[in-house]
Specification:
2 domains, alpha/beta, single chain, Nucleotidyltransferase, domain 5, 6-stranded mixed beta sheet
Length: 254
């Protein structure tokens, strides 16, 4: 059984996989001040609450876009599992052909997403990851990673709007009943969610034109289930994409 951990700026995704089967997926808040013991307790809780035995974990892998806590979480994984933990980074075998200006600059989460997507879905493709930032990655028909786009994530937009206005309230990100809001809360919901969906639709259309072909579009990330249903583009929602990619990379580096 493999323990897979993806460290994002807002959330950490934890999952266990066995023979390519995702046994569970949990999200916890990213803490820059938590110790390795605190993270180890979090890992143990996530595993045991899903009815699994941590002693059966015989491998572990991490991807991270938060360098300041990567080693802390790695130490936590090794403290809990008693196995050596791999970390996605330069020098690790991924099988991905990266064609951007500086391949070393590509975030490990985007690498992991691309490895999973090119293994499971038909290229060319566009991969959308909706987290603290919303990223879109373009993969050509030969499964080369060409590049992509980064835009502010939904919560970043929401928090920026609220912090810079005096009378707009913080809201729950749930689908509004209609596009045209008739009260402040629904107006904010519509603006943020339909605005994000519209941006994704527009960017996907432009990327398809640049790629010169119709594309498979795959989305993942904590906020993807909220936004994908509002998009006009046909999008495959795969909430386990990162975990699948981590397991694939782990197996390539045994």
């Amino acid at each position: 059984m493999i323990l897979a951990v993806d460290i994002g700026n807002t959330n950490i995704v934890i999952g266990c996989c066995d023979d390519d089967k995702i046994l569970f997926r949990e999200r916890v808040s990213t803490s820059l001040t938590a110790t390795d013991l605190e993270y180890a307790v979090t890992l143990r809780t996530a595993v045991e609450m899903n009815g699994l035995d941590g002693s059966q974990i015989d491998g572990a892998i991490i991807s991270s876009v938060v360098p300041t806590i990567t080693n802390t979480v790695k130490a936590a994984v090794e403290k809990y599992t008693k196995v050596k933990c791999k970390v996605v980074g330069p020098g690790m075998k991924t099988g991905l052909s990266i064609k951007i200006d500086n391949p070393a600059q590509l975030g490990s989460d985007l690498v992991v997403d691309a490895v999973a997507s090119t293994s499971e879905y038909e290229a060319p493709m566009i991969i959308i990851d909706m987290g603290t930032a919303t990223t879109l990655s373009a993969i050509d028909k030969d499964k080369n990673y060409l590049g992509g786009m980064i835009l502010p994530g939904i919560m970043v937009s929401h928090d920026s709007l609220i912090s810079r206005t005096s009378q707009l309230p913080r809201i729950a990100l749930e689908e509004p009943k209609k596009v045209i809001g008739t009260n402040t809360v629904d107006c904010i919901k519509g603006g943020i969610l339909y605005g994000s969906a519209g941006a994704i639709d527009g960017i996907c259309e432009r990327m398809k034109q640049e790629l010169g072909k119709n594309c498979t579009v795959v989305a993942t990330g904590g906020l993807a289930p909220v936004v994908v249903p509002l998009c006009k583009t046909k999008i495959i929602l795969d909430e386990d994409l990162l975990l699948k990619g981590l397991v694939l990379i782990y197996n390539k580096n045994i």
